[in-house]
Amino acid sequence: MADSPVNDWIAAANDDPVLRSLRQCREQLWINPKRSAFERVKQQLPLSFSDIEDASARLERFAGYFSVAFPETAARDGIIESELVRVDKAAKLIAEFLHSDVPDNLLIKCDSHLPISGSIKARGGIYEVLLYAEQLALEHGLLQLGDDYSCFASEPFRQLFAQHSIAVGSTGNLGLSIGIISAKLGFKVTVHMSADAREWKKALLRSKGVNVVEHPSDYSVAVAQGRQEALNTPGCHFIDDEDSTSLFLGYSVAALRLKRQLAEQNIPVDAEHPLIVYLPCGVGGGPGGIAFGLKHVFGDAVHCFFAEPTHSPCMLLGMHSRLHNDISVQDIGLDNRTCADGLAVGRASAFVGQVMEPLLDGIYTLSDERMYALVTLLTDSEKLAVEPSATAGLPGFAWLMNSNQETLEVLGLASSLHNATHIAWATGGNMVPVDEMAKYYALGVEALKQFKF
Ligand SMILES: *Cc1c(COP(=O)(O)O)cnc(C)c1O
């Protein structure tokens, strides 16, 4: 094999226990050795708090449009937001399943039930389309910043957008969110789907007039081909999930909203009462954007962990090797096949891993069987139906509660873990057809038999 940074690292890491566990698809918790005090690193970050505020203000400007165009958002005055719910029954059942103590405060952030597209992608994906639409409308003199944005539902806007196109590559959920909002605004929109994308997602998009292109390959190839085709199409805006700061900022706004929800529920967040957030990670933009926002809002009182499938641990591999998007899970012999289609990503985002280097506490992995089992346990305990990907945040508390004192010292949680509020970010599920969900549940019943529980 030719010399390359990837081969060099793999050769040098031969005895590395983290790499060994990755290769064996063993579930593990990786602690990020580069995590730093937030105040020390804040100035060096490529994006700042004012960027988050700018994104938040843009979403507020569009609230008038959403109330009109998507009546399901009217209850929140056109703000796309999800509930934050305490799940005491799930805490008990999942703790038993994972052989851990029961956490006092386990909450689920229900992005699985976000309006419009039923996944976390209703944050970043929709945001980037709005940013583009706003720029076009300003450039063409149809809009002034102070206007009532319900005008985006009017004919002159639709005519303008009909002359422009949007393209995206996706494992499914990003395509759903971009497709739905783009088609509603009147854009021509093409979604490049990877082989693991579900049939129902393609059918739903086609029913809305979206051009769906199927690729017999994985996510990275679908994105690359979509990017190439978009480059060859004049007037086409490509939404680049592997390298987009606007997607990232769209996600980050969740932190401002979460701050308000925690305050409304009288949940303290400070050094004695840490907030620990567990985020399912695919390419990294969603969890990265949210974690980035949370660090700006709560500083060192918040601890963020990503969760990845054992077959697609691209962020763990990229951050641990420090090769980021130069290395893929296929490079270490993994197949990138997982039931967690939202997380079936073999190569991490070009920039998220580097931004997260000083901010992230760690990453853990979990098996497909674990995710199926959690789908079933969450349904049984809370009647909350989510897709397998969206359960990945649930085992996070148990990794910490089962950690030794030394690990907790490193994380600064040794004396405060018992006061922590744990939030598992549920990232998708509401649009999954009931018969598909029933299949996940049945697979979970089977999977549960494999575990000592
Ligand atoms: C996209 C997605 C994620 C992760 O977001 P990334 O930006 O790809 O890291 C997690 N869960 C679900 C259900 C998703 O669709």
TrEMBL record:
Q: What class of enzyme is it?
A: lyase
Positions carrying N6-(pyridoxal phosphate)lysine: K121
Q: Does the keyword Lyase apply?
A: yes
Q: What are the UniProt keywords, alphabetically? A: Lyase, Pyridoxal phosphate
Check the record and name the InterPro entries matching this protein: D_Ser_am_lyase (IPR011780), Ser/Thr_Dehydratase (IPR050147), Ser/Thr_deHydtase_PyrdxlP-BS (IPR000634), TrpB-like_PALP (IPR001926), TrpB-like_PALP_sf (IPR036052)
Catalytic activity annotated for this protein? Answer: D-serine = pyruvate + NH4(+)
Q: What cofactor does this chain's UniProt record say it requires?
A: pyridoxal 5'-phosphate
Q: Specify one Pfam family.
A: PALP
Which residues belong to any copy of the Tryptophan synthase beta chain-like PALP domain? Answer: 98-397
* EC numbers for this chain: 4.3.1.18
Asked whether the UniProt record includes Lyase among its keywords, one would answer: yes
Provide the GO biological process annotations.
D-serine catabolic process; isoleucine biosynthetic process
Stated family: Belongs to the serine/threonine dehydratase family. DsdA subfamily.
Q: What is this protein called?
A: Probable D-serine dehydratase
User: What species is this protein from?
Assistant: Marinobacterium lacunae
